[in-house]
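Moderator note: this is an archived Q&A kept for reference. The question asked for a predicted structure of one protein chain; the sequence and the answer are reproduced below.
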Amino acid sequence: MNQDLVIEVTLNTDLPGHCYLVVNNGRHLHEFNQHPEGQGICWTLVGNASHGEFCALDEFDPGFRWSVSTPPEGIFRSFSRPAPHQLKVMNHHTGNGSRGHWPYLLFARFGDRVYQTPWAATNGPSNTANPTIKNT
């Protein structure tokens, strides 16, 4: 099995009262090639976000949610929260049937406030400003 891809998540606090999560320093698109054993993905709150925790996966604002469309069943498996500051999933991109592009949202709690990755309307998948997993 491949080693997990760790994706760092920080908290943008530039505009007081309008904080939001930032994935991978703003490089939101993560592309994955086919792999017979799949690939682990682990989002981790780091830096100024390290004191927060991802929301539980069964909350109203879950730690992780697909934002536009849900991928076909079986591609992404075993969603978990191995530690409060981490979310993990297995990407089973093993053939042409698991190709696709899926934007997602993350939610994390800091004290009594929940912040998320922002959502932006775009002109197609290649121009997305949204966190996205793309299986090529």
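Archived answer notes: The domain at 5-135 is CATH 2.60.40.420 (Immunoglobulin-like).
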